[in-house]
C-alpha cells in the first residue's frame, strides 16, 4: 500500500509538535510543510482548513485523499493502525 503523509503546521504549534512526535513514534514517514512560508501558506489555504496541524493522506492505490485537521489521536489510530 502506497501512501504519502503531508503535515501542514509549524514548530511553534504545540499540537503540531505532538503530531510529529506521534508519527515518529509510530515510524510513519511524513513531509512537514511550514505554513509560515508564503508558498506553503497559499497551498495550505486551498484545503480550507480551520487550523493546524492539517494532515493530508494520499492513498495511491485507492486514489483517495483524506484530510485530518488537528491532532486527533483516535482518528489517527484508526487511519494508520489497522
Automatic annotation (TrEMBL):
InterPro entries with a match to the protein in the record: Glutaredoxin (IPR002109), Thioredoxin-like_sf (IPR036249)
SUPFAM superfamilies attached here? Answer: Thioredoxin-like (SSF52833)
Among CDD domains, the record links this protein to:
NrdH (cd02976)
- Limits of the Glutaredoxin domain: 5-59
Q: What is this protein called?
A: Glutaredoxin family protein
Q: Which organism is it from?
A: Bacillus bruguierae
